[in-house]
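Honest question from a wet-lab person: if I give you the sequences of every part of a complex, can you actually get the arrangement of the whole thing, not just the pieces? Trying it with mine:
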Amino acid sequence: QSALTQPASVSGSPGQSITISCTGTSSDIGDYNYVSWYQQHPGKAPKLIIYQVSSRPSGISIRFSGSKSGNTASLTISGLQAEDEADYYCSSFRSSNSVIFGGGTKLTVL
Amino acid sequence: QITLKESGPTVVKPTQTLTLTCIFSGFSLTTSGVGVGWIRQPPGKALEWLALIYWDDDKRYSPSLKTRLTVTWDTSKNEVALTMTNMDPVDTATYYCAHTHSNGDAFDMWGQGTRVTVSS
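Yes, you can. This is the full assembly:
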């Protein structure tokens, strides 16, 4: 099954805002509000930062926000900090009763 | 406090069957809405969802790997196992188990992962 489509890399300067897109189909993102986002630092396990499109787990900074329009979900990080430099993955429930991840986006804080 | 930890062989030979165990604490798999999933990540590559078992024994599998995967839950222990048959070098990856609970199959707690290498 094809992965959700994410840009390979994005970058931004400290204090700026960046947005990472995640494009799927009408069989996943377009039809379900079950989009999640994960942050992964090198050598570490992924960490959930957004679930059900725009909800933040307890303890996650309000600088992280999620949204969805049609078949595309987005993660926005405002007030970029050096510690935000990591890989980011989106995921979605899919109509085949499965979960699909995106290809990942490497965020570089300049 | 929810914790999960994966265990299993670090090296398997091609065509062999891999069995990984996820030992968890801090939650019960008998609680409505709770699930344990398996996700893997080849070196330098993206996450790939493999399987998920829910509190009511509902089991879901990746469509592309469905014929090779089995997920089971030892109800006498806090353990979930994943079996993958006919291993191939392309299955070399870090394998994670993770917890989900009524949040749209989002994994809110992860194990540290276990690296599995497939090599003769």
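Two things worth pointing out. The longest strand of chain B covers residues 93-101. Chain B has no helices and eleven strands.
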